[in-house]
C-alpha cells in the first residue's frame, strides 16, 4: 500500500494536460459489448477503474488489444458469458453498466451490486425500473442482479430522480431493442452525451442526449468504430481548484471549457481569475478568497464530484460559506479529515457550514473516497508543513498520474510505500 507525502506552500505554476473522462470511459468500454465489430477507443485514462472494467470484459471473452497508453481496441464478438466477475465488479461503480450492455446484447446479464465511493445507500431502483419497462424481468439474489428478457421492446420511461447511471443503463439496453424508447427526466452530464456519440458512431440512433428527453430508436446491428473520449471535467476542475488554493497560475490543457462553466463561475465569485481558451483554461489567483455558497446539482449545476475539492478552498476563504449537498445523503465523511488540518466546519445533514481560517496545517489524513482523496491532496498542497495522505487507492480509481502531474506544477509530493505490519504468530 502507498501513501502521498506532501509538503505544502509551493505555488502551482505551469501547464497540466487533462486525461480522458473516467465516467465516460467506464460507460463506453462496456458499451463496446453491443458492437458487431472492433471498437477502437482513444483518450482512455490510465486509472484503476478502467483497468478493472477492461479486465472484466477480457475475462468474459472479449479480445482487448492495447494500441498505446491511451488507446484500446475491443472486439466483443467472442464474449461467451453473461456473468461478470464478482471480484472485480464489486469494487467499481461502472460495473453496473454491464447490466445494460449485456442485456442489450444477449438479453441476459448477471452482475454483482456495484461498488464505488461510499456515500451511504446508492440504489439502482431506477435502472431496474427502466429494464422492466423494456420488458425484462430481474431478481436480486445473494448480492447479484440477474436480469433477462425474451425480447426487449422500446418503451416510455420517466425517471423519478435524475440519475446518470440509470440514464446510461437504459440507453445501453434500449439501443438494440425493438422500437423507440423515450427517457424523460434524463441526466444531462457530458458523459451521457459522449456515450450517445460513441453509440451513434457505431450506427445507433440516439437523439436528445444532453437534454432531459432522450429518444432511442432501436437498431438491429452496431458496427465497429473509432472514437475518442472527452476530457475529464472533474479532473480539470480539481486542478483548477488546486491552482486557486495555492495562489498559483496554471494553464489546464485538453479541456472543454463549456463543461467547466459551473466551476469557473464559483471560482470567479471567490475572486479567482479564470481565462477560457478554445481547449484550455488558465486559473490564476493573486488576492484573498471570498466566501461563497455552493449547492451541488445534476449537470449543468455544480457537480457533486467537485464538492470536497471546493470545500478545501472555502475553508481558507474570508468569511462563512455554506455547501448544500443535494445529490448524495452522505458525502461529507471527509470533513473530519479536513478538520484535522485546522478547517472549521460543522455539518448538519446535507449542509456544511465552513468558517474560513487563515491557513491549514499539515496532518496525517486518509482519502475516504476518490474525490475526498483529491481534496486531501489540495489541502496538503496549501497547508503549512508536511502531510501524509493514506488510502490513495481510492484516488487511483479516477486520477491518472496525479503525483507526477502535481510535481510538474511545482508541488512537493512523493509516493511512499507503506510496509505491511508483520504480525508475530503465537507458537
Ligand atoms: C460512475 C459514475 O458515473 N458515477 C457518477 C454517477 O454516479 P451514479 O450513477 O451512481 O449516480 P446517480 O446519478 O445515479 O445518482 C444521483 C441520485 O439519484 C439517486 N438514485 C440513483 C439511481 C437510482 O436508481 N435510484 C436513486 O434514487 C442516488 O441515490 C443519488 O441521490 O453520478 C453521480 C452524480 O453525478 C456522480 O457522483 C458519480 O461520480
Ligand atoms: C463518485 C465517483 O465515482 P463512482 O461513482 O465511480 O464511485 C466520482 O467519480 O466522483
Euclidean distance between termini CA atoms: 28 Å
- Tally of individual domains: 2
Q: What amount of the residues lies in strands?
A: 15-25%
CATH topology descriptor of the largest domain: UDP-n-acetylglucosamine1-carboxyvinyl-transferase, Chain
What percentage of residues falls in helices of 4 or more residues? Answer: 25-40%
CATH top level of the largest domain? Answer: Alpha Beta
Total helical segments: 14
Mean pLDDT: 96
Biggest beta-sheet profile: 4 strands, mixed
EC number: 2.5.1.7
Function: Cell wall formation. Adds enolpyruvyl to UDP-N-acetylglucosamine.
Modified residues (2-(S-cysteinyl)pyruvic acid O-phosphothioketal): 117
Protein name: UDP-N-acetylglucosamine 1-carboxyvinyltransferase
Explain what you see:
Helix 10 links the parallel strand 17 and strand 18 (320-324). The relative contact order is 0.15. This protein has helices spanning 22-31, 48-59, 86-89, 97-106, 125-133, 164-174, 190-201, 233-245, 261-269, 307-314, 335-339, 370-382, 393-396, 402-408, and strands spanning 2-7, 13-17, 39-42, 63-68, 71-75, 108-112, 137-141, 144-148, 156-158, 180-184, 205-207, 213-217, 225-228, 249-253, 273-276, 280-284, 294-295, 320-324, 344-348, 351-355, 364-366, 386-390, 412-417. The protein contains 14 helices and 23 strands. It folds into two domains: 2-19 and 232-417, Enolpyruvate transferase domain (UDP-n-acetylglucosamine1-carboxyvinyl-transferase, Chain, Alpha-beta prism); 22-228, UDP-n-acetylglucosamine1-carboxyvinyl-transferase, Chain, CATH 3.65.10. Helix 1 (22-31) packs parallel to helix 7. The chain binds uridine-diphosphate-N-acetylglucosamine (UD1) and phosphoenolpyruvate (PEP). Phosphoenolpyruvate (PEP) binds at residues 22-23, 93, 116-117, 305, 370-371, 398.
Amino acid at each position: 500500500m502507498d501513501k502521498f507525502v506532501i509538503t505544502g506552500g509551493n505555488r502551482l505554476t505551469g501547464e497540466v494536460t487533462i486525461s480522458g473522462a473516467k465516467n465516460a470511459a467506464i460507460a463506453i468500454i462496456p458499451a463496446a459489448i453491443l458492437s458487431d465489430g472492433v471498437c477502437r477507443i482513444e483518450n482512455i485514462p490510465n486509472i484503476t477503474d478502467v483497468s478493472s472494467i477492461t479486465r472484466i470484459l477480457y475475462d468474459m471473452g472479449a479480445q482487448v488489444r492495447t494500441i498505446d497508453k491511451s488507446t484500446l481496441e475491443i472486439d466483443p464478438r467472442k464474449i461467451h458469458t453473461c456473468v461478470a466477475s464478482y471480484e472485480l465488479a464489486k469494487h467499481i461503480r461502472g460495473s453496473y453498466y454491464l447490466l445494460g450492455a449485456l442485456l442489450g446484447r444477449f438479453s441476459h446479464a448477471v452482475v454483482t451490486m456495484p461498488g464505488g465511493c461510499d456515500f451511504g445507500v446508492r440504489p439502482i431502483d431506477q435502472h431496474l425500473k427502466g429494464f422492466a419497462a423494456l420488458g425484462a424481468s430481474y431478481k436480486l439474489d445473494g448480492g447479484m442482479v440477474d436480469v433477462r428478457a425474451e425480447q426487449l421492446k422500446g418503451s416510455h420511461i420517466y425517471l423519478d430522480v435524475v440519475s446518470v447511471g440509470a440514464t446510461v443503463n437504459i440507453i445501453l439496453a434500449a439501443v438494440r431493442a425493438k422500437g423507440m424508447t423515450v427517457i424523460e427526466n434524463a441526466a444531462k452530464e457530458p458523459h451521457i452525451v459522449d456515450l450517445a456519440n460513441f453509440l451513434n458512431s457505431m450506427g445507433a440512433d440516439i437523439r436528445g442526449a444532453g437534454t432531459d428527453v432522450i429518444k432511442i430508436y432501436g437498431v438491429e446491428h452496431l458496427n465497429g468504430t473509432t472514437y475518442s473520449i472527452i476530457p475529464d471535467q472533474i479532473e480539470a476542475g480539481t486542478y483548477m481548484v488546486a491552482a486557486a488554493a495555492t495562489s498559483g497560475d496554471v494553464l489546464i490543457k485538453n479541456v472543454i471549457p463549456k463543461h467547466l462553466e459551473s466551476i469557473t463561475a464559483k471560482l470567479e465569485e471567490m475572486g479567482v481569475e479564470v481565462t477560457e481558451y478554445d481547449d484550455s483554461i488558465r486559473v490564476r489567483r493573486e488576492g484573498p478568497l471570498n466566501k461563497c455558497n455552493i449547492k451541488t446539482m445534476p449537470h449543468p449545476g455544480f457537480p457533486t464530484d467537485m464538492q470536497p475539492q471546493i470545500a478545501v478552498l472555502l475553508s481558507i476563504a474570508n468569511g462563512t460559506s455554506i455547501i448544500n449537498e443535494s445529490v448524495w445523503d452522505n458525502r461529507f465523511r471527509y470533513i473530519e479529515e479536513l478538520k484535522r488540518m485546522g478547517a472549521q466546519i460543522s455539518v448538519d445533514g446535507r449542509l456544511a457550514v465552513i468558517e474560513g481560517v487563515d491557513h491549514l496545517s499539515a496532518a496525517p489524513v486518509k482519502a475516504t473516497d476518490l474525490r475526498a482523496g483529491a481534496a486531501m491532496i489540495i489541502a496538503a498542497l496549501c497547508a503549512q508543513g508536511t502531510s501524509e495522505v493514506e488510502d490513495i487507492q481510492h484516488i487511483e480509481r479516477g486520477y491518472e498520474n496525479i503525483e507526477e502531474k502535481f510535481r510538474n506544477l511545482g508541488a512537493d509530493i512523493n509516493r511512499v510505500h507503506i510496509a505491511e505490519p508483520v504480525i508475530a504468530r503465537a507458537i
